[in-house]
Amino acid sequence: MDQLTLMSRPETYLQDLQMMERCLELAQHGAKKGELPFGAVIVSRGHVIAEATNCVSSEGDVTRHAELVALSEAQKVLKRKRLQDCTLYSIVEPCPMCSFPAREARIGRVVFALSSPVMGGYSKMGRAQGRRFIEQTARGFWTTTGNRLRPVVSAG
């Protein structure tokens, strides 16, 4: 879904903003519990299916990133491994460890606030495939659809 499509679909834009705000709330909650401030939400057809914060410190497990916890929960709730009708919202571009399971689950869309060219799994995927990506603006969300990275909201 590109920026022009989002402009013509205000309900998608509004949902993206609301879910990113929820990710921030989750990240703040996690930080208060001693975790790194990351939050993730998975939405299907306008309904929140799963949400999570990092659990790395509390569970002593480096694989308990917010995105992975949310993906696992969404698959349990929906009782299926494919999540093609879902959107994953995250504070920061999911790392390679989180991006691979999202791809394997066939997540329909990924939206994040901060790109991470060094650690981001979607940025790395694109560079590995020889794609050129747009530089991140000072503010804005990014979305992926079919492994293509696009800005959702430009700095204004």
In words, what does this structure look like?
- The longest helix is centred in the first third of the chain and has 23 residues, at 10-32.
- The protein has a six-stranded mixed beta sheet, with helices on both faces.
- It starts with a helix and ends in a 5-residue tail after the last strand.
- It has helices at residues 3-7, 10-32, 56-59, 66-78, 96-104, 121-128, and strands at residues 39-44, 47-53, 86-92, 109-114, 142-145, 148-151.
- α5 packs across α6 (121-128).
- β5 and β6 form a beta hairpin.
- It has 156 residues and is an alpha+beta fold.
- It is globular, with a radius of gyration of 15 Å.
List the helices and strands and how they pair.
Elements: H1 3-7, H2 10-32, E1 39-44, E2 47-53, H3 56-59, H4 66-78, E3 86-92, H5 96-104, E4 109-114, H6 121-128, E5 142-145, E6 148-151
Helix pairs in contact: 5-6
